[in-house]
Design goal:
Strand content of chain A: 5-15%
Strand order of the largest sheet of chain A: 4-5-7-9-10-11
GO molecular function, one term (chains A, B, C, D): isomerase activity
Largest interface: A-D, 56 and 56 residues
Protein name (chains A, B, C, D): Sugar isomerase
Structural class of chain A: alpha/beta
Number of strands of chain A: 11
Keywords (chains A, B, C, D): Isomerase, Manganese, Metal-binding
Oligomer: homotetramer
Order of helices and strands of chain A: HHEHEHEEHEEHEEHEHEHEHHHHHH
Chain lengths: 426, 426, 426, 426
């Protein structure tokens, strides 16, 4: 199914007047305080977040999985789902594929579907944390870091294949997430494992087209529970430097130890021109993969404050590959993603409201109270009218979640696909 | 010094019209959605938070202390400071004393000063974590839990003395925070330490006037770094049950292990009619004692959601003893406290906006997306006009922090007190 | 397959003399210091740990599962595996079944197999965290805590069925672990969820035979990632008290927030006669389910110190249901379990070496240095000869892991079962 | 006071025979397994750990300080204390001074005292986290990272002064620990703060004598509770690279977020030839500064495993500056330090027992069970006889803690110094 423009406009009608009042009032307030409201709305319109193909079905935990009706069962249907999200929100204009789950059978057809929905192909993701059916080598004891050269070669070749697939679709970056690590002290030699990983990444890097980036993800634990080879930003940064200028670190919000100051990591990576990608989600305990902004929205705002600052002050960073990397165990995945997109835009809009010059002055003055006031003033502002206006201008829904429900999207998907389809993915 | 009503009204003048517009617009919006705006404002006006006497000076860490000019150097001056806070915010109508730091020399005089500023005496706090100059026994190895009966007796007697002092001032509750615990495995016998503590608390409980409450605080670590005798809410709850119906648990936001779900603890304690007090602050790592709402404002909102629910549904809990327990290393303490009071009122107001009936319906329907929407709708609302209105109606400042600065309070205090006074406390 | 006594004795032969020397030397040393070596060996012999049926196959994570050759594919084969462990270690004399994974088809036959291997049936485990194929109701939104009475009834009935099955096999306790909780703020009403759980547990409790115990497990998170209904020992303890004297708390080492002092929890539960069961494993980050003693062996020792103390001083606790609850992603499950059993016995033996009278004296004297010396003296002792002696006397292998390998057990299992069998479980 | 050789020998007498038996038995066992016992003992003898001058008095927390009798009140007395530790343990042959607490008045005299006790001057420590009495600038808002150039200059000059003082005493390295950071979001611009720090460190680096090292410490929080400028090893490593080849990272065991894999950090820093120093202590919650090995001895062993590996395989690292950085709130500081020294030597000895070739073979074979067995075999060995033998050969006490007590050292110190002296420090 596809959501047509006129359906969205119909769904907007009854709220239009109310929206206009809210927006005018807020816009007026913000303009008085010196904010460039139109500039903010333009930035919100331009901000597009990729949806990973594996986030469109129900997620699971090691304790089981409760499926959801109407899941997409093919790549085409996944892209349709992203199209639905994008039509409603106008901020989901990209999809991030995972190989081998999403290998296209007909590239031209897939590209045509995506084009028709205004969806780009963002970073492609390789998978060396599971064994494929007829794989010669096993990743049980690691992939790019494995002590066996044959395993490393298989993993390297897989990444090169992924680049090749992505290239045909118009992707411009490869995301490498390694599950490599160890479950027990002594299992791995840390130095060897890192050296092998560095060597393997360099091999992959050699196969990168000139206009591509390689994004190196880090994670402190899971599925390995004693150590991971790329455990933190420092290791990722070191590897990116070793590979070259097209290699960057990728930050996933859930991949940090308790109490980490993630916004500082983001800021420092940007200051060194080495932040290449970003995975959004939220968490209370570990890599919980919850809806963005559902647990720690202020932390998300602080991160966006650094992102906005970096985009303005650190021109040597690439355009970031933004992606939502969440899982949905108890919600309709599309509704969950709509909530995530809303939270991202909200944090971005609030960060754009911060008067950077005023903040810098307060910092130079060591006026800590004022610094806090400036941040909180932006954060406490109810920016929903700005988000709605940006969507409206772009042809989206004033309230995507309400539109999704009133248009009865899920039931239409069930009608088309049946109840018991199962999406590939985690 | 004392802030006069007319000074506040003067400071409000230039923002009055703007406030009225903001308030009307918001009030209108909220009323349309079914909110009882006037009821919320009345609740905000009624909500009073105690200021602890030790929070009026600069705080320190074990690495040192950077002092602040114009600190209060006597109990009178401390109460004056609370008076300033209350005049501006109209939400700081109580002080919480710490013995022996705040033993009045002239009870009648102290009460008169407090009355004149509309300040009540909230819970009194005992101190058995430091040795006083001429103490016979040392608390180095514990107080109420100590293996020595003489030490325990001294600590019990101190608590009885504190009750006596509080009674003369009109306090109605005793807060017991124990630093007791151990720094090394084996140092303490856990069972003996807990049994001693229970026995000691029962002795203190016997000395409690009929209309008093005993509030038992818990904390997982610091200043002891291996174990604490009352490490968590479960232990505090067990002790409160052992003592009797006038004994309750007290929750301090900073006293939890990483990632604790504090709102659930609050909710469960209220359901058992055993939540007696609350210490506000914020933290990223441990008991950091930062300004309320400066790090995790959404968590504070979720806690208030449970408090509001409990106040409506669990009538057997006492009126809670609300207190700010923060420390101020880099801010003017009074400004810090104003920011804390604002954050508390904000979280409370937002929690009051939650439509509990709608939430319950969504919960029964397992509509998780809707549940989240309901909470986020309340949280995303900019409630500052409600807070300002409540303050205005009560005679406070529209913007307490701006008024504090424009009235040049700190400099007046320095003029009166001198630069190098030092407040008693941590 | 079954390991015959004479095979074990053969495998012991070449190490017998060396063992005797080691044991004599150690025994002599310990006796000089006043230890009752024979008493310790008897206690080690008596100490039996249950093996859960689901731990005999390869474990997995949400990212996948790497299978292992020769996994047991039936209940009979699972019990055979426990028989192998027990023959070698003489400390695995029980199995803990999980329903519905392990419903016997022929009770008499299963009991006969178990009897022949000297295996008892320990606690039976219910499963309300997954939906079974033809279930009427879904546990997606909870089981015993569900807002729907029909779901609760199904979950209650399942637990009663599990009791019935266990009863036929000679089990004497039911372990209830709930995955119930929520993934997002607002999803659950904490008070309702807990009240429903309490009511449901009471229903199950009514169906408990007189000589049975009900063990209530707690866990702070996973698979729910915002809240769990029974989040900590305090909640479990409260529920056990509400149910009655046959209800107890069960401690799983992996089910705690970072930095928890688990030994203190154990101690306090024992002092209140409410510790009923224990799940062993190890972890660095969360519920990692690693081999016991592989990450924090000293913490395990400290826990055993409290267990030993409690067994001596708190006679009102029941015989504890000891069980290993680990998962094995990169090791042969049987080897992993042998390592776990060894670590448990080691910690137990060391705890038995602590001179409790001397420790108490040092505690009373506040001689913290001495307290630590006493614990460390016991911990630093190499107790492996004691473990080997206890096994030898009981008919087990001097070195179970070496015997397992030299007897080529895994290959025999593969020959019998084939490579690609898959055990039921997580 | 000074402990004479003959006193130590007297105290050893009654245990000599028993020691010899233990040592012979163990030595024999280990030799059979292929260990080079004499080589290990030589390494133990060579391993010297610096005692920081501030660790010789009682420590405190922000909640207070319980003093200890007989504390050293001058630099001379501090060095005497180190002399006592070294005489007993033969592993404390260095002192680490802290400026301005330990500025010598008579360099020649101080050096003579130290020489007479066989004590070297290890790394010198600067202090820019406290304001000195007549300081022109305040470090309240940072030192090397401060936005004010005057403050940065003062801090740089202080470090240069410290180098100068250390140079006169024979130190060869400067340890820079910064408390710099922020307590609230927005207070600092992360990029500016880091850039200022880098520039300041480069200025200090310029003043470093050719044969000196600069050791850059990192810490995630405390005394700043929102951010620190050098929050992790990645930042420290980046700064060390920016400064030059004489700059290194320094690892303090307590300066990590919960659950950090410190041994991996150590290993990776060594592989990059950037590990320059090491601060020993132990902790359960944060930077608790407890006795080394008192909480997580296995983690210490795993760290030493990496250190031993690195010392053998990464020749480009400098000789490490080993130091104990603990605090003593409830123990006699000297006894505490003796326990720490013992724990360090124990971990080192056990790490030396690991058969690296066998471990590497097991790793290449992915024999995870075997890898664990190898590590645990070393760890489970009771190496105390090796430690005693190394001390004996070097002229130290068989049991330092017993000798310290039997020689009645503390009472002699009290007699000499009086009860109420207070050492400078935290």
């Amino acid at each position: 199914m596809k959501i047509e423009q006129n359906h969205i406009q119909d769904s907007n009608k009854k709220s239009l007047q109310s929206h206009q009042e809210q927006f005018d009032f807020l816009s007026n307030n913000l303009s008085k305080k010196g904010a460039d409201v139109q500039g903010i709305i333009n930035k919100l319109k331009d901000f597009q977040v990729a949806i990973p193909s594996w986030a469109l079905g129900a997620g699971g935990t090691r304790f089981g999985r409760f499926s959801f009706y109407g899941e997409p069962s093919s790549l085409e249907q996944k892209i349709q789902d992203v199209g639905i999200l994008h039509a409603l929100t106008q901020t989901a204009g990209a999809v991030s594929l995972h190989i081998p789950w999403d290998i296209p059978q007909d590239y031209a057809a897939i590209k045509e579907i995506a084009n028709g929905l205004d969806i780009k192909f963002d970073a492609v993701n390789s998978n060396t944390f599971q064994d494929q059916k007829d794989a010669k080598e096993t990743y049980k004891y690691g992939s790019l870091s494995n002590t066996s050269e044959a395993v490393r070669q298989q993993a390297i070749q897989h990444n090169l294949d992924v680049i090749n697939i992505g290239d045909k679709l118009g992707s411009k970056s490869l995301t490498v997430w390694l599950a490599d690590g160890s479950c027990f002290p002594g299992q791995n030699n840390f130095q060897t494992a890192l050296q092998n990983t560095e060597n393997s990444l360099k091999e992959i890097y050699k196969g990168l087209p000139n206009d591509w980036s390689m994004l190196i993800e880090y994670k402190p634990y899971e599925p390995n529970f004693y150590s991971t080879v790329i455990q933190d930003w420092g290791t990722s940064f070191m590897l990116a430097n070793a590979c070259g200028e097209k290699a960057y670190s990728l930050v996933d919000l859930g991949h940090h130890l308790p109490n980490s100051n993630i916004e500082q990591i983001v800021s420092i990576l940007m200051s060194k021109a080495k932040l290449g990608g970003f995975h959004f989600n939220d968490s209370k305990y570990g890599d919980d993969d919850l809806t963005v902004g559902s647990i720690k929205p202020y932390a998300l705002f602080l991160i966006f404050n650094e992102l906005v600052y970096g985009m303005q002050n650190n021109p040597n960073n690439p355009d970031l590959a933004w992606m939502i990397d969440a899982s949905h165990n108890v919600k309709d995945p599309l509704e969950d993603l709509i909530q995530s997109l809303e939270a991202i835009q909200e944090a971005y809009a609030k960060a754009l409201l911060i008067d950077q010059a005023e903040l810098k002055a307060a910092q130079l003055n060591n006026d800590v109270v004022k610094c806090q006031e400036i941040l909180q003033d932006a954060y406490r502002t109810d920016v929903r009218p700005l988000l709605a206006e940006a969507r409206l201008k772009a042809g989206g829904a004033l309230s995507p979640i309400n539109a999704y429900r009133s248009l009865d999207v899920r039931n239409q998907l069930i009608d088309e696909r049946g109840k018991h389809t199962v999406a590939t993915g985690l």
